[in-house]
Structures are given as structure tokens and as C-alpha cells.
Amino acid sequence: MTELNTEEVADSQVLEEPPPEPRRPLYRALLAVAPFLGLTFFFVGWELYVRISDIRPLTLPLPSDILRHIIDNPGFYWRNGLVTVQEAFWGFWLAFIVAITVATIMAYSRFMERATMPIIVLIQSTPVAVLVPIFIIWFGFSSWPKIITAALFAWIPFVANAVTGLRAVDPDSHELLQSIDASNWEIYWRLRVPHSLPYMFSAARICIGLALVGAVVGEFFNSKEGLGNAARVAQSRLLIDQLWGSVFVLAFIGVAFVLLLTAVERRVLRWHSSQMLG
Amino acid sequence: MSNDADEKPYSGDPANPDESIRFEQVSKWFRRKGQLVHALSRVSLEVGSGEFVSFIGPSGCGKSTLLRLAGGLLEPDLGSISIRGETPQVAKSLKHYGFVPQQPALLPWRTVRKNVSLLGELNQRRSHTTGISPDDQLQLLHDIGLGPFVDSLPAELSGGMQQRVSIARAFALGAPVMLMDEPFSALDEITRADMRYLLLDLWRRVGSTVLFVTHSIPEAVVLSDRVVVLGARPGRVIRIIDVPLVRPRHEAVEDGDDYHHIVSEVRAALKEGSEDQ
């Protein structure tokens, strides 16, 4: 007993030190390269599958062949990729602006929400691709039909998330701002808009892909350039390399923009719980 | 009404005998799922300038409703309310209220310091109240133990710390009337006991009028000049109990016989209210 006591006293006299910071640099590095690892795994798997099972290139080409084809024709893909990116970019922002406007009106008025909802569902369930020739009649052979198509593909996730984000603010915070008679404008900018940002970022993640697909669909109908045009030409002339090459470049563009968005999100949403773990 | 008999006109601090808040025959109904609920029935009350008044009662007694009526967040169906001679709507537009909601309600994207300065930045149309100066705000945060956290985000703070920020935010506005809706109810008992005396300390320095809604009898007695005991269905004033304990009050006050006597008085009044139904 007494021995035990003296030991305890001795223990407490030793300078108490906090445990060292857990250092897991390897894990951090792994997290940083995880997206590239995922892609590599996917393509290596594909490559091995095609090589082992001996499928004809017409059915499914080797990804390494497609990559080589892209590298051999950098100018072609750069030119066409740039056109598609521009259309998707403007379509994305057009969708964003229209969606924010519509969502703001819907978030402030139950009546407007109920009145607008059927129109949104109507537009959503319309096969947009079918309407592209109509847009060409309306807007001519310009970039506009493609931008509009991209916007129509992308705007629904924006509207849905913006309505939730603008409306689902903390009632206590809302009441607090009302208690000092803050204007609707102040409540909108200081409370609703910042609150909707995490919702908008997760919508944007989906909308980047949708806008790119929309631009390509627009290009399928009438265009002289763009990745959609490249794919259409490749389809009709059975240029398998160029068909897959267009798809690959489009996918790379999508991944690049999503990564860019993630980096921006990490900075802007530093305060949000989605950014606090890991 | 029973409250008329028990109510004593507030004698007040002799230096400042002005009445701050007056409820006159205030009634309020709510419609819930088609049912008409009588939330408050003919509540009359005068609160002196600089007085600390608590409202206590069972759930459904309309104590939060009373607070929201005082703050102009709800309109009474009958009767009237005046805040320093103005309607609650005018008082609200003049930024006369420091509101402390039940949850800290901090904006998660603003640092502690910026949450505290928020209310001063908004509504500059009529009143140019920007609250106390940024230096004083910082001093206030230091005084209540938030010094190391002024640039932290709310998510990095404990619940008790967040509620401290919420109280600092209300005091930073420099408003003459404080409306507090069970601000300590989500805190653990130890933190809660600390917060009482922290609040009293801040209040003593600022001298604002406080309406404080609570579920806790000890809290009501420790903090208040008067405790308004409310009954439910319909919400009404059962009794108004004076708390003549000396100020400034410290933890020791809870050991005194006077304190225990008043606590039992409030408890008895609450019981009386529930038996009335």
C-alpha cells in the first residue's frame, strides 16, 4: 500500500507533458492524390481487361491508344475543347443567374413557389436535346443555341439547392435579425445568401458536368467546331479514335473543373462542417 | 385578474424612476392546426427602467410569446405594449432591443468578433446605433473570457462559449432593453451557474432593462428584481414576487435563508397556477 502511494507521488512529480502531435504525413499525401489514384485504377483496369480478353478495338479500344491519339493531335483537341468549354462556361453561369433569381422569388413567396413549380417540372421533363433545332431557328447558327442547351441541362440542381439554401436558415438567427428590424435586403445578403453557399457548391459540382454535356448535345445538331462536333463527325465516319478521344478530353475537362471548384470551395467554406473533417 | 391584486407599482431606482416597459391588458391567440389556442389572457405589467424581471411558468404559459410581443416580433390581438413610450415596432426600428435567443444563433461563417459586431452593422436607416465601439467590444469579449477566441469560428467553440458570444452580441449593441429567451437552457448545470453571475455582472455595468424567460426557479430568483409567475391555458399572470436580495449578488446569495424563502414562494405560486386549471 505505502509503496504504491510513494509511486503515485513520484509519478505526479514528473513533468506532465501532452502526447506528441499525431503525425501522419503519408495519410495526408494519400488524401491529396486520392482522385488521381482513383482515375489511374480505373484506366489501368480497363487497359488490362481489354488486353487480357482480346476485344476488337472497334468494340472497346485500349485507353493507352486513345491517349496516344490525343497526344498526337494536341491542336485539334485544344481548339475544339476550348469551344466547348466556352459554351459550357457561359451556359453554367446563365443557369446560375437564372436559378438564383427564380429561387429567390420562390424562397420569398409560397405562392410563387407553387405557381413556378409546375413550369420547372415541365421544363425539366422536356427532352432538351429535341429542342435544339428550335433554338437554332430562334438564335441562328451562333454559340447561343449551345449555351442555352448547356444552361437548360444545368439549371435544375441550382434551382433546387438554392431554394433549400435560401429558405432553410436558422429560425433563431432570422428572429435575431428581425429583432433589430434588419431589412429584407440585409437578411437576404447577410443571412440567406451565405447560408445557401454550401448548397450552391454541391449543386455546382453536378452542374459542371451537366453544362459540358449540354454544350456537346447542342453541338451535335449544327456546328463546325467543338468536341460535340468532333464526336459527331467521328461517329458518321467511324473514326473510333476520334470518338473516344473527344469523350476523353471532355471527361478530363470535367474533372479539371471539378477539382478547381473543390479548391475554391475549400477556401470559401472554411467555416462549414463539410470542410472541417479530414 | 389575480395579477391586479398582487401587483405593486414599481418603485424603482430613485435616480431613474422612469417606466421602461408597460403591458396593458395584452391578449394573444394562436391558430394551430385549425385550433384556436389562447396563448395570453389580459396580461398587465409595468417594468421600471433598469429593472431585471424574469418570467417563469409551465410550458404553454406564453412566456416566450410575451417576450416576442415586447420585442415587436408578434402583434397583440388585444391590449397594448409600450417600450419607453414607443410602440414595439418603433423601438425595434430604433434598435432598442438586445435579443438573446434560446440557441446561440451565431452565424457560422463569421468569427466571434464579427458575430458580436453584426447587429451594429445592420439597420442603419433610422437609428445610427452602431453599438459600443469596436475597442469596447473587444474589451467586453476579454472580460467574459473570450479573449483568446475573438478570431475563432463558432464551430470551434463549446456550447457555453457560444452562448457567451450570444450574450456579448446583445450587450455590444448597447440597447436599453434586453430580451432573453431561456438563454441558458441548453447548457450543463455548472456552466449555467457561472453564466448567471456573468450576466449579472454585465447587466450591472450597462444598466439596461431585462426581460428574462426561464424554466429554472433558482435562476429566476438569483437574477431578478421581480419574478413574474405565469400559469398556462390561457397564459396569465399568477403572481409577481419581489426579490429584495441585496445587489451585487454573488454565489453566496444562494446560501442565505432569504433566497430559500423566495425560492419556495415562487415554487408555491407555480403550484397554485397549475392547480387553478
Textual characterization of the structure:
The complex is a heterodimer of chains A (278) and B (277). Chain A is flat and about 70 Å long. Chain A has helices at residues 2-13, 25-53, 63-72, 74-108, 110-125, 128-139, 144-167, 171-179, 184-221, 227-237, 240-268. In chain A, helix 3 packs across helix 11, helix 4 packs antiparallel against helix 5 (110-125) and helix 6 (128-139) packs across helix 7 (144-167). Chain A is mainly α and 278 residues long. Chain B is α/β, with parallel strands linked by helices and 277 residues long. In chain B, 35% of the residues lie in helices and 24% in strands. Chain B is built from 9 helices and 9 strands. In chain B, strands 5-6-7-3-8-9 form a 6-stranded mixed β-sheet, sandwiched between helices. In chain B, strands 2-1-4 form a 3-stranded antiparallel β-sheet. In chain B, strand 6, helix 7 (189-206) and strand 7 form a beta-alpha-beta unit. Chain B starts with a helix and ends with a helix. Chains A and B meet through helix 8 and helix 9 of A and loops of B.
